[in-house]
Design brief:
Elements lengths: L12 E7 L5 H12 L2 E4 H10 L3 H11 L6 H15 L3 E5 L5 H11 L5 E6 L2 H10 L9 H24 L3 E5 L4 H12 L9
Helix pairs in contact: 1-8, 2-3, 2-4, 4-5, 6-7
Length: about 200
């Protein structure tokens, strides 16, 4: 496959963003984009855009989702890879991926990119439930049983990924139960280069 370069020929900087449903990672990603110039790539959005495009690939993805099958890692990785190569930026937040250990191994193998670090928005289940149930625009899948199931699935599949990177010292864990601004203060501290941090 060979390695993946950004549009400017540089090796891209990739940060994986993981957090369960309701952990607020979408909001934080938007802040990171605004303050630090990253490009936000959401695996789910890329899959949805591909389906919408009506391509043969999109139709295949749609059918798999309809049948309740899991979209193969390779498919998602190809979309991420294409987005990285075509974007023009060389710093990316990859959100909601890798969802499991197989995703992770496949991503590194196919792209030869290892993430700079993994940003993990750690939020207790009670807080996530409160947030998701309190969403006024409440998604139809935001009832308590579904939320608990989504949380359980997230934990079971994502924990091995987090443990893998933890062993490499690459996990930056954020306490996501705090208010949005307080969470972003923690995030900012991680993204601000060492030399720009003011000595306290």
């Amino acid at each position: 496959m060979g390695s993946v370069d950004a549009a400017n020929g540089k090796k891209p900087t990739v940060i994986f963003v993981l957090g369960g449903p309701g952990s607020g990672k979408g909001t934080q990603c938007a802040y990171i984009v605004e303050h630090f110039g990253y490009t936000h790539l959401s695996a789910g959005d890329l899959l949805r855009a591909e389906i919408k495009s009506g391509s043969a690939n999109g139709t295949m993805i749609q059918n798999m989702i309809k049948e309740g099958k899991i979209v193969p890692s390779e498919v998602t990785i190809k979309l991420l890879q294409k987005a990285i190569q075509e974007n023009g930026n060389d710093k990316f937040l990859i959100d909601g991926f890798p969802r499991n250990e197989e995703n992770r191994a496949a991503f590194e193998k196919v792209t030869e990119i290892e993430p700079k670090f993994v940003l993990f928005f750690d939020c207790p289940e009670e807080e996530m439930e409160k947030r998701l149930l309190g969403r006024n625009q409440g998604r139809e899948d935001d009832n308590i049983e579904t939320i608990r199931k989504r949380f359980k699935v997230f934990l079971e599949s994502s924990l091995p990924v987090i443990q893998y990177y933890e062993a490499k010292g690459k996990v930056r864990k954020i306490n996501a139960a705090k208010p949005i601004d307080a969470v972003f203060e923690e995030v900012k501290a991680i993204f601000t280069p060492e030399d720009e941090k003011v000595e306290a």
